[in-house]
Amino acid sequence: MMNFGNKIKELRLKNHLSQEELAEKIYVTRTAVSKWENDRGLPNLESLKCLSNLFEVSIDDLISEEDIEKDKEIDKKKSRTFYIGAIFCLFITMIFSLLVHYLQNKYLQIPCIVGMFGYIILAMMSKGKYEKNVGKKILLSYFISRIVVLLILIGFVVYTLLTLS
User: How do residues 100-120 score in pLDDT, each as one tens digit?
Assistant: First the structure.
């Protein structure tokens, strides 16, 4: 059974198109086409529709359940990386908050604040595209947990700022 990347490459070559030409026809970048052909991701629904129309094949013929599962695994790995980064930023924030307090050095607030913003950004990015749909069922608890952690971080930063004033 041929995977999505091989199917796209075969259809592209059969139609005498370069990656650049295919990208232009379906309004994506050449890098996106390369990513698909090398099985590093799947196109969004709009791009799938364009590919289906261009090559005159059904979406089901283009993409299989196995391709979707592989894409989910790639998404999980990316999410895990962002999650580890978020935890690291949280750790940095807490360490520097304590250092600001004990050393009374206001310049140590900079990594503390950067760590807080890093945590917020990476924590939001750690939710994979497949997990987002599942998360809607427990949306309230997701937002409450994020707000609680954010309030704790803000508390650390405010505390360190007030102790140096």
Answer: 878 888 788 888 888 888 988
